[in-house]
Amino acid sequence: MSGEPSTPRVYGNWHKPRSPGLWGFGALSLGLLMSGVVLSIVVLLKSTVAGALCLLLTMVVVLPMRVRDRYGRDLWQRFAARAAWKIGVAKGQDLYQSGPLARIGRGTHSLPGIAASITAYDAMDGWGRPFGLLHHRGVSHVTAVIQTSADGAALLDKDEVDARVAQWGIWLAALGTEPGLLGVAVTVETSPDSGVRLRREVESRLVEGAPPLATEIMRAIVDEYPAGSASITCRIALTWSMAARVEGRAQRGLQEMAVEVAHRLPHLSKTLAGTGASPGRPMTVEEIATACRVAYDPAVHCWLEEAGEEGTGIAFTECGPRAHWQYDSYYRHDSGVSVTWEMAEAPRGFVTSNVLAGLLAPHPEIARKRVTLLYRMHDPAEAAQVVEKDYRDAVFNESGAKGLQMGTRLAVRQAEKTASEEAQGAGLALFGLLVTATVTDEERSDEVGIMVEDLGLGARLALRRSYGSQAAAFAAGLPLGLVLPHHLEVPQLLRELR
Known about the structure:
The protein is of the alpha+beta class. The protein has three domains: 9-67; 91-193 and 230-496, no CATH class; 195-227, no CATH class. It contains 15 helices and 13 strands. Strands 1, 2, 3, 4, 5, 6, 7, 8, 9, 10, 11, 12 and 13 form a 13-stranded antiparallel sheet that branches. Strand 2 and strand 3 (130-136) form a beta hairpin. The radius of gyration is 26 Å and the shape is globular. The mean pLDDT is 84.
């Protein structure tokens, strides 16, 4: 046996997609600049003043696209987001009321915002297990949610941890071959443990005639153990498109999608074993509704846990907030106040397998914390095209750079390595991350914000508050399967070309 310490396995080689361009301009802004210059020259031949004004207008439109902040957003994007927020406030879109006394609606407490169009149906999977099928009517998507439990890496040697990470990568790569699968959202939520489940389990096992000392010890455990402990839940939402597989055919119906999803869930939940998670089980409509209800109104958590195996009885049309107020930097909903951050930049360089451990772990000062990893998988044919395009764009950007540009050279090497790994069978995915922290005291929102940003630094993530879109970001972090690019008013392709 060798006494030399083994080198820890590291992970990385991710990069943000960039469109080809010159002088710091993207494809769209460069195209506008060239078109504006050519048009100005043509107009200049007829009128000097008109040509100068045309050139000035081109500069006014294009130059703000060249100025970007630390998160990669240009001035037009920041201005548009701010203007949209102000217009929404003027229209009263920052306030939501539901229930019998609401001005709009059907007298129910339905989900607000981008989740308002979701309806839920009961179905059975291939193993006879009930599950909830969520129908996103506005974008023609369906979602099923798998609940599992994360085992963690405690008391595991390095080889076992590496094997679990590899198995998780294999599971994600296999999703790229799932027909019609649009996105995957993995939500890890930590919350205070009320102790209801422990008390119910202990009381069910106490028998008459047991030794008084044993009974006293068990009751003391029930009284003292929940203090300071946390409950951790893990849910995986998978979203499919209802579009027809064969061009020219009509869109698939709910009945057809329910049958297809029912046949896929057993395999998807079974293959989670070995990834560090237990074999999952699909969540029912009632369980999904309960999770959303607790997220919007944390005060009812203990009451709902008292229901136990009898069920909470919450319908999907009653899982939304009674009222919410959306502010620029935080979100107030029923008994909770939440702040949501989005990942602006992935960790630089290479990281170890426990880079997110601190961010995912329970925090003693944060009552409820929800971390959602968002994936959009590329199928094998699309992945090959994407890596080839990324390589061409990286080479083009390097050829247009002035002098020695280590960033552009590194981008070319990363693109080459990604293409090589994809050719060997590795999966390719776009990924993002949302972090939501919920407290019951509005005055602690800034204090908790500092804590979450510190956790992001520990995970080597650049986290940015979702200014002006707190309600939408909060809903995206719930196990509802919202694929955000399909809910944007500006097409995703146009945003990437900037």
